[in-house]
Amino acid sequence: MKTNFTRWLPSIAKTPTRRTALAAVGIAAVCGGVAGPAIAAESGTTPTITGGTTVTAAEIKTVAASEPAKDGKSAPASKPAPADKSAPAGKHASKGDHASKGDANRHGDSGKNDHRSAPKKPAAPAYPAAKQLNYQYQGQINFFYCGPAATRIALSAQGHSLSQDDVAGKLGTTINGTPSAVDTTRVLNSIDGPNTYHTTDVPHKLVTSKQVDQFRGDVMRAINNGNPVVANIAGTGVDTLGGAHSYDGGHYVTVVGYADDGHTVLIADPADTVADGSYWMSTGDVTTWMGNHGYSS
């Protein structure tokens, strides 16, 4: 049996106007009554009638904006134009809000002033070009007392008068000699005062210019503080007059002065039997002489 809708449908479709109205009604029924008017509005056609109410293009756009988005989420509200990020919140940027050229100059000047006012590192002390200490020379009393004798010579420059036996007992010297510069440093500090002397190693026979410069600086500093340097050497060293001093088994000598801005040093050798047991040697040669050993300064 045909319904009334079936009977009047063909008659409606006979005219273009009726066909348009019929199409609008069908789309509205399928798309929830919004898609049809929206399409008509966007295409610029005459506003359609749904349910007896005329819907204008402006009203359709308003309704569309309030409808849910396709993903089910509400469409975001319209946003104001983004504010200038350089302006502080709550006010507009002005020339005063930005660093001016004068401000930049002031900051630059401030940095320069800070740099100029920064404290400078203290300059290295100015030592005289040459200096010798007063000391009491005493040759070693046996073949293995070079360590005690050299240490005693160094202590005598500070007015300490000890016997070689006393110093040997403090050093732990045996028939095999005195172990190392660590021991001479320890005994010198125990008598002259803590931290007066420090031990420096010269680990290789092939020394560097940096090691020579360090030894030169250490000698000048120690001598000007009134402290001779005790050096643990081995092998042969040649003095400035060409004299050779050979101690293949190891030996201790005392540096009691320097000349030529520290490039030459005065050695008091407790095993030397010539005159007062002293001679001059270049700082570089003495540094090499101490290779594989070290010194107390």
From TrEMBL:
Sequence ranges assigned to domain Peptidase C39-like in this UniProt record: 134-271
Species of provenance: Rugosimonospora africana
UniProt keyword terms in alphabetical order: Signal
Signal sequence, start to end: 1-40
Protein name in the entry: Peptidase C39-like domain-containing protein
Biased segments, Low complexity type: 74-91
Superkingdom to which the source organism belongs: Bacteria
Composition bias type Basic and acidic residues, residue spans: 94-117
Gene3D superfamilies associated with the record: Cysteine proteinases
Region of interest called Disordered, as start-end residue ranges on this chain: 64-125
Pfam families for the chain: Peptidase_C39_2
Database matches in InterPro entries: Papain-like_cys_pep_sf (IPR038765), Peptidase_C39-like (IPR039564), TAT_signal (IPR006311)
